Each structure stands twice: as C-alpha cells, then as structure tokens.
Amino acid sequence: MNRPRVRRLIYVFDKKTEKFVRSYELPSFNLKEVQKLFDQKPGDRMYYAYHITEKEAPYFRERYGCRFYFRKREYFLDTRKF
Questions:
Q1: Which of 1, 24, 28, 65 might form a disulfide with 10, Cβ 3.0–4.6 angstroms?
Q2: Which string of DSSP letters, residue by residue, matches 40-82?
Q3: What's the number of domains the chain is made of?
Q4: Predicted structure pTM score
C-alpha cells in the first residue's frame, strides 16, 4: 500500500474573529526535524494540525522566511493528503 502524498501548510487565523486569513504551502519539509520541534515520536507522520507558537516560530522563520504576528494572528501547521 502506498503512503498518501501530502502537502504541508501553515494556516493563519485572526485572533479576534477566528476567521481564516491565508495559508502558506511549505515547499520542502523535513519530517524528522519537525517531529523534534513539536516533541512527537519518530513514527508520527504528523497528519494533524499543530499550533505554532513563539517557541516553534524561529524554525519556520529561518527555513521558509515566514513572518509571525502573534498579537493578531494564530498559526497552525497542517497536512493535506492527496
């Protein structure tokens, strides 16, 4: 059985209204690094949504150039299978 192909994205929501603002697709993704970043077990494929906080932000800022505005926005790493 083949594993599903996945896209990793960061979803951005407004803190006050909780409305979707935008998403960013991550062009490459190192699962092992992100598992460590979010304290996940090596076998976890990380198919669920993970809240990105100020603790994880530097990783995404350095690798993908993401900008974070934590006073106004909430950020989630998520996966879309296809």
A1: 24
A2: --TT----S-EEE-TTTHHHHHHHH-----TTTEEEEEEEEE-
A3: 1
A4: 0.90
